[in-house]
Design brief:
Blueprint: H1 2-5, H2 10-35, H3 37-117, H4 121-135, H5 143-192, H6 197-201, H7 205-210, H8 212-225, H9 232-235, H10 239-250, H11 254-273, H12 283-306, H13 313-335, H14 341-360, H15 366-397, E1 403-405, H16 408-417, H17 423-427, E2 432-434, H18 439-458, H19 465-493, H20 499-514, H21 516-527, H22 541-569, H23 586-601, H24 607-629, H25 639-657, H26 674-692, H27 695-699, H28 706-709, H29 717-721, H30 726-749
Helix pairs in contact: 2-3, 3-4, 4-5, 4-10, 5-10, 5-12, 5-14, 10-11, 11-13, 12-14, 13-15, 14-15, 15-18, 15-19, 18-19, 18-20, 19-21, 19-22, 20-22, 22-23, 22-24, 25-26
InterPro entries: EXOC6/Sec15, EXOC6/Sec15_C, EXOC6/Sec15_C_dom1, EXOC6_Sec15_N, EXOC6PINT-1/Sec15/Tip20_C_dom2
Pfam family, one: Sec15_C
GO biological process, one term: intracellular protein transport
Amino acid sequence: RSVYDDQPNAHQRFMEKLDACIRNHDREIEKMCNFHHQGFVDAITELLKVRADAEKLKVQVTDTNRRLQDAGKEVIAQTEEIIRCRVQQRNITTVVEKLQLCLPVLEMYSKLKEQMNVKRYYSALKTMEQLENLYLPRVSQYRFCQIMIENLPKLREEIKEISMSDLKDFLESIRKHSDKIGETAMKQKQNNVNYGRNMHLGKSRIWESKNEMTLKRTFEEEDEHEEEVLTAQDLVDFSPVYRCLHIYSVLGDGEIFENYYRKQRRKQARLVLQPQSSMHETVEGYRRYFSQIVGFFVVEDHILHVTQGLVTRTYTDELWNMALSKIIAVLRTHSSYCSDPDLVLELKNLIVVFADTLQGYGFPVNRLFDLLFEIRDQYNETLLKKWSGLFRDIFEADNYSPIPVANEEEYKIVISKFPFQDPELDKQCFPKKLPMSQSVPQIYIQVKEFIYASLKFSESLHRSSTEIDDMLRKSTNLLLTRTLSSCLQNLIKKPHIGLTELVQIIINTTHLEQACKYLEDFITNITSVSQVTVHTARLYGLSTFKDARHGAEGEIYTKLNQKIDEFIQIADYDWTMSESDGRASGYLMDLINFLRSTFQVFTHLPGKVAQTACMSACQHLSTSLMQMLLDSELKQISMGAIQQFNLDVIQCELFASSEPVPGFQGDTLQLAFIDLRQVRHYLLFFSFSNYVSNVSVSFGFCFSPSSMKDTSKKNNIFAQFRKNDRDKQKLIETVVKQLRSLVNGMSQHT
């Protein structure tokens, strides 16, 4: 057994030693045989003797051997079975040992497959790392291990592709949900900050009553928003980003992933920043635009804080600065299309919420608030356009008559709308009339409404009360000096506005001018900024209404002169009439009656205005009559025509002396007709002189005014009849010179 169980070649050595031992024994036997040869012979002899016994013994041994062999066959079979079993047992032991080495590898590979199936790719990469570094080297001699080793790189590439696909799906998802994310973030900001509440609560009781319904709606909306608001993490699953980042980091391609992510997000940023062409038409277009941008940067901020190195603060700041420049350019362009002040106000509120929301995430938004000041100017422009239409409608609807009040209640209603005070009028009994027309309280109310509207834009701009007060006063000044002033000037120039309306406009502007101080007090109550502050601007309503009043006064003068011209045009003098009618011309009497009734309307005007209008009308009438007399087409005037013209001039002088407008000193108004009076005297003098000389009787005398205009080019008509009277000729020449100088003086005066 030791021969079989010993080291290799033990059997051969054993056989060699056995042969050597046999040879030694043979030699010893030979020696012994030689030494004991006799004994051998004796032994042979004895053996021969026992031969027969040996034969018997052989038979017996053979039989015993046979029986022993037969009995040992089963033992041999069992022994061989035992040997085979022991070999199997040894093989099994070897297999078990090898399997114990392979089982962890197979278990890890199975685990890897399971992780791949459930998309736990980061864990799968960790499992691959363990397989490569710890388990596979132990069993690298097996073929299945080689197959595994060859498959691991493929699995890594598959994981990279799958994770990249998940990242692309994630990027597409946040692109679609960015507006929802932004809307949610902006709602959160609105819940955290009650916009405008402090501003509203700090206003006067007038402002509070004005905005009672607005506050109620605001609080109701805030109550609705008190419900739980979802965050960006609730709306978007960021796990694909984390997985992809970890996977690429494990694979050593973290930088490639970062560059890809930033590149794709920049592309998405450009798409988000690209507005729709019709965005300026509705507030929903702006809201969606801002929501998308907020959603984009909320995601980036979240990625910045939950990942390490995927995005950096420098990257987000650079991206925000690029976006901010684009946003400002877009808002400048699209806001310029907005003609509705309500839409501009909604845009302002959206920009404020947008800026405050992103400021809460650490993005600088000062440029947005600077943009709001530009939009504020545009908002004021849209307000001015809107209020220009309102003013025009008010002026068109006004009847330009004093406001009648039948009782105390109606009177209180009027003075509640407009700050009117007149102690003399208060003493009068009802019914009575207020001096201004219905447009005055309406204009005053609309100016206050404009201040309210302008104030709405100043809310939530994070500006001091002084700055808000200054903005309100500047916008109100623009309304008064540009919009209202323009409407008044256009109103005055309209053809259908007559003298009565112009008089009422002057009265209206006077009362509106007096109400400017109440507008200043109104602004002070809203902003709580004292008017004595150094930087407080003043309202320019005084100059506005003065200019409008001066324009109306000038238009009164113009329309009076036009009306006089209309009467003069219907004058039909018969310059060859033989004798006068004995009374003033009908057109002139109608004109004087018109002037009397018109000047009665001027009783409510300031004294100087009425006096100036009256003086201007009389001077224009005098000039018109003078031009009629000195018309180049008028060749001759009869004695009767001179007398008729004299009656008309006398009627004009009587009108002037009747003091149609009180306040003139002495004969001031009559001086308007002094030039006409001198011409009349000259004409009467000439006609009387000619009458005395009987020339008119002999030759049918007619006086020619044209002869007075130029005596140097042709002979004077008087000289043809009185050649012998040199003194008379000299007198006529003197009169002609005086008339010529008089006409020149009148033309310069006109």
